[in-house]
Amino acid sequence: MANIIEVENLDIPELEIYARMTQIQLRNRLEPKKGLFIAESPKVIKVALDAGYEPVSLLMERKHITGQAQAILERCGDIPVYTGDRSVLASLTGYELTRGILCAMRRPCLPRPEEICKDAKRIAVLEGVADATNVGAIFRSAAALNVDAVLITSTCCDPLCRRAARVSMGTVFQVPWTRINETLDQWPEEGLSLLNRMGFRTAAMALTDNSISIDDPRLMEEPKLAIILGTEGDGLSENSIAHCDYTVKIPMSHQVDSLNVAAASAVAFWQLRAR
């Protein structure tokens, strides 16, 4: 049975994880250091529970206890459920709750890249993609378009941050992912070398004089391909491009020279999918 707790004192330690949930803190990755992350909205929480993630506590508007959160509460045992009026909870979190429900969950230990890529044919590697919305959208495309795993560099936004998980519609809990490096000096040389040792040819998505078209037959014929996507402003580093097996571009018209990284990922995942 749920342990319902009315929120009256906003300074209690148990609510610290919710009180510090700002976009700046998410991007600075304060949550991973605490071993928790926040899942937001009934849909995202349900997908996380389905994937085996462990809930620690819930924060929701009072009306949802017998409403859209009822099925979630039935699955969460006797964990604390902090509740109150919308205005009280907004003063705690600093923003209006999306659909009125947040769930603090334990952060799992990340697997090694070799574990999640062992049987993969197509993977994505995100180099320094910093925007949570872009990371969430990339994961959603990866799930929809049969990307087997996602690897991120240490400068990439945390896929489990609140906004990324919500934009992904929970697919960050479905697509296997991990960090390919923990320190900057391991990427790109050591990271790309690891991909090659695992049998992947690497395709850097970038515009250069040597870029080949994304519909080049050589790419389609690769049995194992890693699609490398770069940061929003500058794209992939020159060092990463130089160490990849292919440099790949998406042909465009009307003098458009680039797409948002999330849009580019969807095009790349579809075109380069395993045959």
Our count of helices gives 13
The main sheet orders its strands as 8-7-6-11-9-12-10
Q: How far from one another are the termini?
A: 49 Å
- Rg, alpha carbons: 20 Å
Q: Choose one word for the global shape.
A: elongated
Percentage of residues in DSSP E strands: 15-25%
Low-confidence stretches: 21-31
Mean pLDDT: 87
Reported for the largest beta sheet, the result is:
7 strands, parallel
Helix proportion: 25-40%
Number of strands: 12
Write the element-wise H/E pattern from the N-terminal end onward.
EHHHEHEHEHEHEHEHEHEEHEHEH
Question: Structural class given helices, strands, pairing?
Answer: alpha/beta
Description:
With 275 residues, this protein is an alpha/beta fold. Helix content is 33%, strand content 20%. The protein is built from 13 helices and twelve strands. The chain has a seven-stranded parallel beta sheet. Helix 9 links the parallel strand 7 (149-152) and strand 8. Helix 8 (132-144) packs parallel to helix 13. It starts with a strand and ends with a helix. The relative contact order is 0.14. The model is unreliable at 21-31 (pLDDT under 50).
Summary, kept brief:
By secondary structure, the chain is an alpha/beta fold. It contains 13 helices and twelve strands.
Show the helix and strand layout.
Blueprint: E1 3-6, H1 16-19, H2 23-27, H3 30-34, E2 36-40, H4 42-50, E3 55-61, H5 70-75, E4 80-84, H6 86-93, E5 101-106, H7 113-117, E6 122-126, H8 132-144, E7 149-152, H9 162-167, E8 177-179, H10 189-197, E9 201-205, E10 212-213, H11 217-221, E11 225-229, H12 238-243, E12 246-249, H13 261-271
Parallel strand pairs: 1-4, 3-4, 6-7, 6-11, 7-8, 9-11, 9-12, 10-12
Antiparallel strand pairs: 2-5, 3-5
